[in-house]
Write a structure and sequence with these properties.
4 helices, outer membrane lipoprotein receptor (LolB), chain A, alpha+beta, 332 residues, single chain
Length: 332
């Protein structure tokens, strides 16, 4: 009887092992295992008042910022041959592979807020691998921009062009004219609209985001800006600014937040180390990595003086002719 039990036990063990091997072979032949259940990420709850207070405190804390900026620029309005061979095919009138104009820029960024809410911006950099420099300066509403390419001009100047003009948040930016403004960098990084008088807000709740929309009391039919908060940690995820005609003129997307020490008054503030800046109408995008960020250090006014490099042509934005659009609407 004992021997029989041992045989039965041995047979049961062999069957179990065989079933395991067969199931393993079936898996190797492509059978799928039951999917594991992954719990959805936690969502934080907040009210509109709480979110507004968060960005207001941050706006009040920061009076100036300096940083090193490594940027990757993409210009989707300019198409270039992908390789040298494609360049040869293009010149021969043959089909060729295309890529958008792109480049890497090593830059320095300096910004500060004036006593009456002015925002002064200085961004200068060198295009890696090319003997080209760019410089964007904004002082309150006035700006001067020296750009490395002049693709919007019928003739290419040997030295370059300085674009000058005024940047008014409530004024429509003309269609088909360079819409980038140095002030956009400040307006996107810092939600100063929360400090402006005559602003009203409402909030939408989405599964992954809280979206706060800012409107002006004197023109509530047009959006002034939108701020998107990530509900996983309530950090600012997207900031969109609109012009006086209700069009998105610039957008920023933020990632890799880390605390940064404030020199004076002593404190800390969360800052994104990675920022993507987009100008949809110009089809231009900058992916920027900020390092060596310093908050509230002294930034002399000399950095924000007008630029007049010798040999450059000055082009006023308002003097650029606007081509007629067939539909009567701005080009995308």
């Amino acid at each position: 009887m004992g021997v029989l039990n041992e045989r039965r036990w041995g047979m049961a063990l062999a069957c179990a092992l065989l079933a395991t091997l067969l199931s393993g072979c079936a898996w190797l032949r492509g059978a799928q295992l039951a999917p594991s259940v992954v719990a959805p990420p936690a969502r934080m709850e907040a009210t509109r008042a709480m979110l507004l207070l968060t960005i207001e405190e941050r706006a009040v804390q920061i009076h100036s910022i300096t940083a090193n900026a490594q940027a990757w620029a993409y210009n989707e309005s300019v198409v270039l041959p992908a390789t040298m061979a494609d360049n040869v095919r293009m010149k021969a009138g043959k089909d060729y592979n295309k890529i958008f104009e792109r480049g890497q820029v090593n830059a320095a960024l300096k910004m500060k807020r004036g006593e009456a809410g002015e925002r002064d911006v200085y961004l200068t950099g060198t295009v890696v691998g090319l003997d080209m420099n760019l410089k964007l300066i904004g002082k309150n509403d006035a700006f001067w921009m020296s750009l490395p390419t002049t693709t919007r001009e019928q003739t290419v100047d040997k030295r370059g062009v300085i674009y000058v003009g005024e940047s008014q948040r409530v004024a429509p930016r003309r269609a088909d004219v360079l819409s980038i403004r140095p002030q956009d960098i400040w307006d996107l990084l810092f939600t100063d609209e929360v400090l402006m008088p005559g602003i009203v807000t409402y909030m939408e709740t989405w599964p992954d985001f809280y979206v706060v929309t800012f409107l002006r009391e004197d023109s509530p039919e047009r959006i002034f800006s939108k701020v998107w908060f990530n509900r996983e940690d309530l950090t600012l995820s997207v900031h969109q600014i609109f012009d006086g005609a209700g069009r998105i003129i610039a957008e920023a997307r933020f990632a890799n937040y880390a605390p940064v020490e404030i020199r004076k008054p002593k404190g800390r503030v969360l800052m994104p180390a990675q920022v993507m800046l987009l100008w949809p109408r110009d089809r231009v995008m900058l992916t920027v990595e900020l390092t060596n960020i310093k908050i509230n250090e002294d930034v002399p006014d000399k950095w924000f003086e007008p630029i007049e490099p010798r040999g450059y042509r000055v082009q006023k934005i308002d003097d650029i002719p606007v081509p007629a659009s067939p539909s009567g609407t701005p080009a995308p």
